[in-house]
Amino acid sequence: MSSRRRWRWPRRLALAVVLLYALPLGLTAGAKYIGKAHAVNWWEASHARTHQAPDPATTPAAVVQVYAARAFSWRGTFGVHTWIAMKPSGAERYTRLEVMGWGVRHGRPAVRVNSRAPDAEWFGNRPEKLVDLRGDGVEALIARIVEAAESYPFPDSYRVWPGPNSNTFTAHIGRAVPELGLTLPATAIGKDFLPNGDVAGRAPSGTGFQVSLFGLFGLTLALKEGIEVNLLGLTAGIDVLRPALKLPGVGRLGIGRS
Q1: Could you state, in order of their start, the residue ranges of all structural domains in the chain?
Q2: For every residue of the chain, which 3-state class applies, written as one string?
Q3: Is the pLDDT higher at 127 or at 5?
Q4: C-alpha dihedral over 213, 214, 218, 219, to 10 degrees?
Q5: pLDDT tens digits, residue range 121-145?
Q6: Spatial separation of the C-alpha atoms in residues 129 and 64, rounded to whole Å
Q7: Measured at the alpha carbon of residue 254, what is the angle toward residues 200 and 257, in degrees to the nearest 5?
Q8: Three-state secondary-structure class, residue 252
Q9: Edge-to-edge strands of the sheet including 244-247?
C-alpha cells in the first residue's frame, strides 16, 4: 500500500473533525465576540421575564416547562444552561429546579429549588422553551420530577466541563421521566455525563440509548435525538425525525423543534 493511501483516511477523519467541531465553534465565537461589547458584569445582567410561561393567575392547570439559555460570558460560546419550571394545579407561583455551581465549593448544594421567574433571561440571554406540558396528567409528572431530583446522584458536585452540571441534572430528569419527551440541544454540554461511571444508558428523551465515556466521548442513537457523536463533550449529529444538522456551538440547523 502506498504512503499516500495509508494517510488518506486519517486525513479525511481530521478534516471531518475540523468541519464538524472546530469550524462551527470558531464561527460561533466570532459571531459572539467580534464587534460586540462584552464588558457586562454578572450583577448587571438581565433576569427579566420573557412571558413564555402562562400566568398562574389565569392558568389554574398544572404546568411543566423546560428551558435552555446560553450560558453567561465566554461559556455561552460553547453551551447552554437548562432548568425545569413547574406549577401544580391551583398554585400561585412556579418552582424552578436547576443545578448551579455558585457556592458549591463552600458547601452549598448544587441542586437549587427556588421561586425565580420560570421563563427569565439567563444573564441577559433569552431562553428557548424545550418542553411545555399542561393539564391532565401533568400533576403526576410533577411528583415524579421531584422524586427524580431527590435521586440525582451529584447533589453536591458541579463541574462546567464535562459535567456534572446543569445539563447533567436536566438529562437525569429526562431519563427518569421519559413522558416529558425531553430532547436537549446539542449545546447542552454535560448531558452525556452518566452517573456512577456508567458507560451506557437511556438517551435523555427516553426514546433510545447512548454510550458515553465520562461525558467526553460517546454516541447516542434515539428517535428524538437522532444520531449524535460526542467528542470531548462537544456534540455533532443529525436529527432524522425533524431533519436538521446539529453542530457544536451553533446548535440546530434545519427544521425547528416544534
Answers
A1: 3-254
A2: CCHHHHCHHHHHHHHHHHHHHHHHHHHHHHHHHCCCCCCCCHHHCCCCECCCCCCCCCCCCCEEEEEEEECCCCHHHHCEEEEEEEECCCCCCCEEEEECCCCHHHCCCCEEEECCCCCECECCECCEEEEEEECCCHHHHHHHHHHHHHCCCCCCCCCCCCCCCHHHHHHHHHHHCHHHCCCCCCCCCCCCCCHHHCCEEECCCCCEEEEEECCCEEEEEECCCEEEEEECCEEEEEECCCCEEEECCCEEEECCCC
A3: 127
A4: 100
A5: 999 999 999 999 999 999 999 999 9
A6: 11
A7: 65
A8: strand
A9: 200-202, 208-213, 217-222, 226-231, 234-239, 244-247, 251-254
Q: Grid coordinates representing 176?
A: 427518569
Tell me the pLDDT tens digit for each residue of 179-237.
999 999 999 999 999 998 899 999 999 999 999 999 999 999 999 999 999 999 999 99
Q: What one-letter code names the amino acid at 62?
A: A
**How far is Cα 59 from Cα 90, in angstroms, rounded to an integer?**
8
The one-letter code for the residue type at 52 is Q
pTM of the model: 0.91
**CB-based contact 175:219 (threshold 8 Å):** no
